Each structure stands twice: as structure tokens, then as C-alpha cells.
Request: fold
Amino acid sequence: MARQIHIIGAGMSGLSAALQLVLAGEQVSLYEAAPFAGGRCRSFLDRDLDCRIDNGNHLVLSGNVAIHDYLTLTNAMDSMGGPGAPLFPFMDLETGERWIAHMNMGRMPWWILDKDRRVPGTRVSDYFSILRLMSAGENDTVLARVTKDNALYRRFWEPMTVGVLNTEPGIASARMLANVFAQSFAAGGRNCIPLVPKVGLSETFVAPCLNVLRQHGVEPHYNRRLRAVGMDDSRIRQLEFQDGAMEIAPEDWVLLALPAWIVRDILPGLSVPTDFRSIINAHYRVEVPGNPAGFIGVVGGLSEWIFVRNGVASVTISCAERYSDTAVRDMADPIWREIAGIYDLDPEKLPPHRIFKEKYATFAATPEQDLLRPLAYDFRWRNLALAGEWTATGLPSTIEGAIRSGIKAAQVVLRWAE
Reply:
């Protein structure tokens, strides 16, 4: 009788693991506490705005190899759009300057020699700080590896660190940021082409994967919340859901793809990240003219990234703890005024909008928290694998990290195939 792999959690890490396992011929059961799959990476109909929106913004780069492979296996690559070139539009709200950081396609960064393609106010020598970042040790912070007192820091290093790691440069892990750069900026322009879903996150990352899983006989079991696991010596022998317990056969495996704090409660003694950062996402129902790239980076304001698609302007504000003294609802008008200023809209006409604050959006990407991240396999439980962007992927809390974690967990299970 074929073994059964029980995957708990249908977020990006769980979907990634399930995809790898069914394509390898394994029998998979997928359980999800929510009535939908995708976790933080999904789209939904907002009744107040009367349109579909993404629960958050995610900028994908062409060098994200795990995402590329995932989308290829799910036949979803055509659902991604973008500018088609390695370019990043920005605006500095304090000075009113606009620019486009436009990389060349090759690995050698010739673009930094052209003052019209690099960040305004920067010199060629400023970019040598990338070399210092790439050689960072496990205890180094970003601020310890880059120079703060120049335009490159304010207009590149700081917004990139906050946007990618959701952690302040003074405490953020330089090695983690270097790992992101290794597959993007350090690998040349061909690996830095921005990609954004043409329709929505669910249409790109969730629905196509669910279609492949269904073709292999896997239908997710929704509204199945795991409350505890039963253990016998070093083996998981039982899954205890809110509606009853399920016995796990000796040859079967359990793959937990749940948030870190839930896994910590289920598996006492497991080392997991303990510090988390919040993100604010604001969505405005408005037609924005002249936005060919589909997004813009913002310096010197509340907003950090603005994505425009299908009549909705969506704003991301990372490290939202910085604004804990301001009620989220009170941020709607100042955020809108930034959008209006960037796109030449009427700042007095606040359009229909929704603002969400995700309190535990990511783990704090610090060297200390990085050391708490567990591997995909812990020898204390011989039929258990772990997945989640909070596990030891080397990357921060990103879609790329979540998908990579699912691949790692699936590889653990496949290595133990009888």
C-alpha cells in the first residue's frame, strides 16, 4: 500500500510541497484551517470596493528561480506581466525628483557608469558597497556593511532593506539581504526584470497549482484546523483536528506548513523565530494614468511601493511598527495624498479605499532570529518535515522563500521513500 503524505497548511509553502510530491508520484492529503488556499498570497473580492484585490503586494524578479520553476510546473508563467526590462521607477517625495534605475541585461553592471541610469546623486564608487554586503558574516547587519551618509543609502539601501526584509537596516541581517541579491542584482539585469501578476495573486500562484493537484487526485480539505499531534517515541502517530483525530500509519509522513507560532505550540521545544514585523496594505479604487511599469518605489514618504492594476492603486508600508502611534484608519488620507502627488490626481478627492494591517506579516529578519530558524527535518521526529518561509531557507519572508521551503520539505520526504 502506498504511503500517504499529510500536508497541514495550504499556503505557498504547503502548495509548493504538495506540487513537488504529487509530481513525484506520492499520495498527498492537504488540510487547511481557512476556507481557502494561498495564505498571505491570495486575492479576494472586497465588497466595499466592489472589486478583487490582493491581500498584499509582492514584487517578483526574474531571478527568483523557485518561483520560476513553480510557475512553470503549474503552467502559470503567462499570467505574469511587467515592464519586460530590468528597470525600477522611483520618486523622492521630499525633493520631487523622479528617476528610473535601469540596469543592463548582462552580468557586468555597466549601467552604474551612466548617470542617467543609476540613482540620482550617487557616484560609481558608492556601488562598491555591494561587494561589502555580499561578503557579510552571519552576525552582520545591513547598516554595518553599507555606508549610511550618501544618497545611495537613502534612495536604495534603506528602501530595499525595509521592502525586502521588512526590518530596519540597523538590525536587519546583511547575509539574508546578500542572499536575495545573489539571485537578483548580483546576477545581472536578466535576473532583475520585475514581474507582477496580470490579474491577481490567486490567479497566478494559487488557482493554477490547485488545478494541477486536482489532476493528481488531491482536493484540499478546508476548515480543518490542526489542534495538536499525538507522538509515540519519535514518530507522529496522530493528527488532532478540531473535528476529531486521525491516525497516522507507520509508513506515512506529516508535513507541517503552518505559521511559526502555531508550530511552536504544536511541537514544544522546537526552535522558531519569536520576533515578528507588521505590514500595512492600503488599496484605493481609482484609475491611474501613465503607469507602464505597473509599480513605483517611493522615497521620503509613508508609502514604499505603489502597485497599479485593474483600477486599483495598492500601497505597501513595511516595518509598520514605526507608525504604531497612528491609527490605521487615520493613514488613509495622507497615503492618498502621496498617490495623488505622484500620479497628478486630486488630493482632495479621497476615493473608496480599504486599509489592512497584518500584525505578524513576517519574522524579523535579524541575525538573531535567523539563527532560530529550524531545518526542514528534525531528527527527533522521524516522519515529520517542516515547511514555511520561517524555516532555514537563507531567505527572508518572501514568496520565493516560502516556495523554496516547500521544495526542501518535499525533498526530505522523498529521500525517505521506501
